[in-house]
Write a structure and sequence with these properties.
mainly alpha, two-stranded antiparallel sheet, about 0% strand, about 70% helix, MetI-like fold, single chain
Length: about 300
């Protein structure tokens, strides 16, 4: 009887399985099959012998070599600082924007503002890099023109090591905060309007209502998003940094992903590059697994 029920259910859901199949194939081809390349991290890889050739096994020598490099600690520090800053501001700014947007009463103005702030999210970093290079140019960029008009000196945002990390963080938040705020706006719609009415009767103004009604109403979503973002501590954004970085700012802007790119594809150090990528993946896996465990244990969040 149970077997017949299962067959009947599979037959009923057959179109849904077909819809999932292309995505499943893409995951297998681009995510699982390339995992075979992890073995290069433990070999002295020689391309002439081929991927499945008789490569010499060297154990953890590639990891020791990478850890001995003077730039490794700098790159790790840059990655953590940039990624952590993006996580913090990437949570705070969308929440603040959602709170402000929630107070607008004009539906037309609200929709127009949402469309404007959502738009940068749909542009790739290749396009955004070109826009930012023009906007932040020290000679004719819009931002520096405003700074000069206010009596300040031009700032080389993309060429000054002091300004490059903060530029990466701010531009990333600017690009993505509109889209991220959708989660919090959706959470606010589930808050009982009667709570606002009761707070208004008790004499609470808009600020008090936001503090005592809106924020507690979305508290679980905020905590959940904070916990789930812990897995991105070593993801400082390769697409963004790769398109905007230059050798002048390596001391403060070079991250793990750009180091792997240069070592593997430019310097042809395939073994050490794979070792760095594997190390990053293992740390990210532990952080993501830990964050999901915390989310499930304390906030009853499950993905399966």
């Amino acid at each position: 009887m149970k077997k017949k029920t299962t067959l009947r259910r599979l037959k009923r859901e057959y179109p849904l399985h077909l819809m999932v199949l292309p995505a499943l194939l893409m995951i297998i081809i681009f995510n699982y099959i390339p995992m075979a390349g992890v073995k290069i991290a433990f070999e002295k890889f020689i391309p002439a012998k081929g991927f499945w050739g008789a490569q010499r096994f060297i154990g953890l020598d590639n990891f020791r070599f990478v850890l001995s490099l003077p730039t490794t600690r700098i790159v790790l520090r840059n990655t953590v600082l940039i990624a952590a800053s993006k996580i913090i501001l990437g949570l705070a700014v969308p929440i603040l924007f959602a709170l402000l947007l929630n107070e607008l009463r004009s539906l037309r103005y609200r929709r127009a503002l949402q469309t404007i702030v959502y738009f940068p999210n749909f542009l790739s970093w290749v396009i955004m890099a070109g826009i930012l290079m023009d906007m932040l140019s020290p000679q004719y960029g819009l931002v520096n023109e405003v700074i000069k008009a206010c009596g300040g000196k031009p700032i080389f945002f993309l060429g000054d090591p002091r300004w490059f990390p903060s530029t990466m963080v701010i531009t990333d938040v600017w690009k993505n905060f509109g889209f991220k705020s959708v989660i919090y706006i959706a959470a606010m719609t589930s808050i009982d309007p009667g709570l606002y009415e009761a707070a208004a009767i008790d004499g609470a103004g808009k600020l008090r209502q936001t503090w005592h009604v809106t924020l507690p109403g979305i508290r679980m979503i905020v905590i959940l998003m904070t916990v789930l973002s812990l897995g991105d501590v070593l993801n400082a954004g390769f697409d963004q940094v790769f398109n905007l970085i230059n050798p002048r700012v390596y001391d403060t802007g070079d991250i793990i992903d750009t180091l792997v790119y240069r070592m593997g594809l430019i310097d042809a150090q395939f073994g050490p590059a794979t070792a760095v990528g594997l190390f990053k993946s293992l740390v990210s896996f532990v952080l993501i697994a830990s964050s999901y465990f915390v989310a499930n244990k304390w906030f009853a969040y499950r993905i399966f």
